[in-house]
Amino acid sequence: VTISAAGSAGSGLAGAPLEVRADSAAGARDLIVVANRLPIESHQDDDGATTWERSPGGLVSALEPVLTSRPSTWVGWSGRCSDEDDYVEVPEHLASLGECELHEISLTRSEVRSYYDGFSNAALWPLYHDAIVSPVYHRTEFDAYRTVNRRFAQAVAELAAPGATVWVHDYQLQLVPGMLRELRPDLVIGFFLHIPFPPIELYLQMPWRAVVLHGLLGADVVGFQSAGGAGNFRQLAERLLSLQVDGDDVLVEGAHGPRRVRVADFPISIDSHAIDALARDPRIRKRAADTRRALGNPEVLLLGVDRLDYTKGIDIRIQAYEELLEEGAFDAEKTVLVQVATPSRENVEEYQRIRDEVALIVGRALGAHGKMGTAPIHYLHHPVPREDLVALYVAADIMLVTPLRDGMNLVCKEYVASRINDDGALVLSEFTGAAAELPDAWLVNPYDADGMKDSIVAAATASPESRARRMRALRAQVFEHDVERWARSFLDALEEVTAGRPG
Ligand code: ADP
Ligand code: F6P
At what angle do helices 58-68 and 483-498 cross, to 10 degrees? Predict the structure, then answer.
């Protein structure tokens, strides 16, 4: 196949002209997934040796089970800087995941600083999460975002078979669909946003709002976690670019007349059966029992599991718990909160701030309520192996998921899937995508400290029958709507929208 190079178009996406090498079809693939992260990332241990670990976060948890069984290529970054002395590429024996081959995109240190830490995580991330902290816009960082997006698009254009399906993921790569359409108009292109899409009033702050919107509209299907996000996007296309909206679809100018972009919600999920199977494993159940014993066999074990991110409400959750100890609602000698907080985006200032703040709040609560030999809080600021995480879910009486804003939140679904005896209780923020699907949780407004405390106590004191009734309903939802169903519904929508499209 010869793929002709397409020049830059008038969308403002291209910057420098885009090119595809003519030898691009060798080893070409029919399904390509593109995400900032590969499922593995490299770390250096204390001796300077490179170790490889599973990448943190919901995107990897969701895509891994979906892609393992599909012949595909996963294009992404391994977390390393290509211009550092100790740089190593993904080793051969780790370069695939079942049926899925991994293809690494390299980033320099300065690109990581400006594209990842900068525009992605200090501008887009806070802007799309209700501007909980102020987004910071730098022109040079947006330039780097465009450069890196172009690198991803070019790599995909070279890997994709004629007419292949390319599924682009998340806010780090919003320009890729538009760039790819210019490079390879033959491709079927989907985009899925894992985080919230903000109301138009917030989105319009962004200096490059039209460029980013053009980038997203390069896709055939643009998917969101919630109907609200999809609605915000349609409204934006109408208002900012004066595009026509027809039902779910936005109509854009295409090479052969108007082209339909399907805009819809596809709430993401988990591999519910895999978590359920782990939770039934006698080794995991023993580990759960051992954990409770090691914690002093508390009457109530509460649990939080998050990346250490200011959107997750970790600080307000611990503060609420401390107040409950203070007020005597919980006995500090018979109650334990385990908070797992995986380090995340540690070069970004606001993440350093929340890390210090959480450490301070935990220290204060321990100082006030700890006794010799008992600690009402256990704080783990490091990644935890998947099996240990499931053992914690099995051990915990109450799961606290209290983000100020979260696109979906998979941790709460994992907790539900691990409660094989229909026991336990989920306290869940209304401001997660998951809340719309899990109304049988104890839903809370994390900005309302007293309301949240009341709900935590209600969950802790509910009768076993009431907990079981709620948990059965939660489990039914999580098992019916698993991640395979999510993937199929997105790929089916792509097929439907592009069926009969002129080639
Ligand atoms: P996000 O994508 O914002 O991090 P989610 O709740 O959607 O949030 O997904 C988090 C995923 O990362 C879950 O699958 C969870 O099991 C995993 N995870 C979270 N914290 C840890 C940890 N400390 N160690 C290992 N995995 C973790
Ligand atoms: O859920 C949003 C997200 O950015 C995902 O893309 C990813 O799974 C997770 O957060 C972790 O973020 P990062 O890749 O920056 O460590």
Answer: 70
Which residue do the tokens 């209304």 mark? Answer: 430
Share of the chain above pLDDT 90, in %: 85
Distance 14 CA to ligand 1 centre (A): 34
Task: Provide the pLDDT for residue 27.
Answer: 63
Residue 37 CB less than 6 A away from ligand 2: yes
CA distances from residue 271 to 6, 62, 228, 414, 478 in whole angstroms, order as listed: 40, 7, 25, 9, 9
Which tens digit of pLDDT belongs to each residue from 245-256? 999 999 999 877
For 35, the enclosing helix (H) or strand (E) is strand 29-37
pLDDT, position 227? 98
With CA atoms as reference, report the closest residue to 498 among 128, 97, 217, 165: 165
Kindly report the number of other CB atoms within 10 A of residue 386's CB atom. 14
pLDDT greater than 80 at residue 19: no
Alpha-carbon distance of 484 to 63, in angstroms, equals 9
Torsion, Cα of 60, 64, 66, 69 (10° steps)? 160
**Distance of CA 134 to CAs 15, 125, 267, 388, Å?**
28, 10, 27, 35
Q: Which residues contact 187 (CB under 8 A, 6 or more apart)?
A: 160, 163, 164, 165, 166, 180, 181
Q: Whose CA is nearest to atom 12 of ligand 2?
A: 57
SS3 114: helix
Question: Could you tell which of 43, 59, 172, 342 is best to mutate to test the pocket of ligand 1, judged by most ligand atoms within 8 Å of the CB?
Answer: 342
- The pLDDT of residue 296 is 96
Q: How far apart are CA 77 and CA 97, in angstroms?
A: 15
Ligand nearest to the CA of 399: 1
Three-state DSSP state, 436 = helix
What's 102's DSSP letter? E
Comparison of pLDDT for 267 and 89, the residue scoring more: 267
Taken in order 80, 82, 84, 89, the sign of the CA dihedral is positive
Residue 29 in this model has a pLDDT that exceeds 60: yes
Site to substitute for ligand 1 among 305, 402, 406, 413, most atoms within 8 A of C-beta: 305
- Please determine, for residue 37, whether its predicted confidence score (pLDDT) is greater than 90: yes
Residue 40, judged by CB atoms within 10 A of its CB (0-12, 13-18, 19+), counts as buried
Q: What is the pTM of this model?
A: 0.94
**Lowest model confidence (mean pLDDT) among 17-31, 186-200, 203-217, 448-462:** 17-31
Distance CA 80, CA 305 (A): 25
Q: Is the CB of 342 under 6 A from ligand 2?
A: no
User: Do residues 188 and 164 touch, judged by C-beta distance below 8 A?
Assistant: yes
pLDDT for 239: 97
